[in-house]
Amino acid sequence: MTLTSPLPSFRTIYEALAVSSPQAKWWPAESEFEIVIGAVLTQNVAWRNVEYAITALREGGHLHPEGILALEHAHLAELIRPAGYMNVKARYLHNVTSWFQANHALASSLGDEALRASLLAVKGVGPETADDILLYVYRRPAFIWDLYARRLLTHLGFEVPSTYEAARRALSEHVEAAAFSVEELAVFHGLIVDAGKLAQAEGSYNAVLESLKGRS
DNA sequence: GCCCAGGTGTTTC
DNA sequence: GAAACACATGGG
To answer: Does residue A80 belong to any structural domain of this protein?
Structure first.
């Protein structure tokens, strides 16, 4: 089931999702640094698994930059084991933590693109992780073109390139046209992920498509 | 047992 | 450039 033309505006999509599952904030974390850690740990892994790893780090008293950097690779890897790719992610966490220590205080002096480029230079921070951090830590405007977003847009009839950056390049104009506030963008990503999980549980995006029908 | 989950880096055409 | 592959675990 796909929507017939014309394609809905992103503003319309946002409003339709907001009605069906009203919720305020989204990225669950107790600190900015925890968002950074979570953004890396959640790569290609269910959030539930990330929670186990973050809990282990918190209970060990390691959930701050100095704490992460003080851990030996093998120890850190063991603590984050539930989040998968433990050896790879242990290295990524070290990299991004070093970046955080060196750049967090200066971030406000950088423009959005410069800050994104700085994040992308870290090994372990790809386009999605960078946008997560830009949006949820630094409150910069960013749309998260993750798997859920691309899947939803495809169901809505958009021609969506298969990779993150290609989708971003091809469809950013739709985001800009909607003139979202940062707060709206932050909520939007959460709404899209929740809608995706719901669609998955129900076996289809029908609920979302139905809610869009009444809004042209 | 099989497939997927809020990707990224490296290698190889 | 893009495609193929490695990276690892927990839940349905």
So the answer is: yes
Q: How confident is the model at residue A211 (pLDDT cuts 50, 70, 90)?
A: confident
CA of A140 to C1' of C11 (A): 34
Domain end, chosen from A73, A108, A136, is at A136
Alpha helices of A60-205 — where are they, by DSSP H?
A: 65-70, 73-79, 86-103, 112-120, 127-136, 147-155, 164-178, 182-202
Reported as type and span, the H/E element at residue A73 is helix A73-79
Name the DSSP letter for residue A4. Answer: P
A44, with CB counted inside 10 A (0-12, 13-18, 19+), is exposed
Is A187 found in the same domain as A128? Answer: no
Residue A166 lies in a domain: yes
- Look at residue A213 in the predicted model and tell me its pLDDT: 77
Query: Given A114, A136, A158, which residue is the final one in a domain?
Result: A136
Task: For tokens 């073109």, name the residue.
Answer: A145
In a domain? residue A4: no
Q: Which residue is nearest to nucleotide B6 (CA to C1')?
A: A42
Domain residue limits at A63: 32-136
pTM as predicted? 0.95
Q: What Å value separates CA A61 and C1' B6?
A: 25
The DSSP secondary-structure symbol of A108 reads G
